[in-house]
Amino acid sequence: MKTGKPKAGLRFPADEARHPWLPVLLRMHALVDAGIATAVSDEERRRGVGRACRRGCDVCCRTQADIPVFQIELAGISWYGAEKLEGPRRAAVRAGLARHVAGARECPFLVEQACAVHPVRPMGCRLFTVFGRPCAEGEDPFHTRRPDLLAPPPGLLARAYREMLPFHGVTDPKDQEDWLARGLVGTLAVNLPTRDWRSLARLMDAAS
């Protein structure tokens, strides 16, 4: 299955000049988005049913206990929350972060059934795709109907990780292949629901 070439994706030229890690994050996410878009299109034709995920379908945002997020993605979420969110949505996110309890399943960035940091949402969220019917309340389709989940296209995650590894100082291609072969990239991720997001609430206060 072809994953396609990364699309240009979002750009924030002024911010990218101030934050050297931001172009890396944007390239990584654009690569994943292009691969997933191609895979979804291919799977819809093969299955004869459409993608169930759409705006307002927020079961996964409220019930998933395990959402991997990498350090560079944490930086992106913090940057976007502190510097890009405005108005009522910023206020809603700020309030949600302030009351968020580490381990709570509902994502603190869920506002009115939509992701307030959608442009910089983690790869884990970008990859999660369900076909057929939408998830029932409280359902985790990984356990209830795994065949309805989109499998990441072959090689897509490895390509994304190669973009990310220099952020962690792994620049030599041989070292990168060793990290991939040994499954070490997973050690760089943390679980989004277990994070203490109150520090971001304070950062948003300072940036206001």
Shape descriptor = globular
The biggest beta sheet reads: 2 strands, antiparallel
Radius of gyration: 17 Å
- Poorly predicted tracts of residues: 1-7
Major sheet: arrangement of strands:
1-4
Give the number of DSSP strands: 4
State the order of secondary-structure elements, H for helix, E for strand.
HHHEHHEEHHHHEH
Structural class: mainly alpha
Helical percentage: 40-55%
Mean pLDDT: 90
- The total of helices stands at 10
> Separation of termini?
46 Å
Strand content: under 5%
**Count of domain modules:** 1
How would you characterize this protein structure?
With 208 residues, the protein is mainly alpha-helical. It has one domain (13-207). It has helices spanning 13-18, 21-47, 59-63, 71-83, 87-99, 123-127, 141-144, 156-164, 173-181, 198-207; strands spanning 68-70, 110-111, 114-115, 189-191. It has a two-stranded antiparallel sheet with strand order 1-4. The longest helix has 27 residues, at 21-47. It is globular. The relative contact order is 0.19. Residues 1-7 have low confidence and may be disordered.
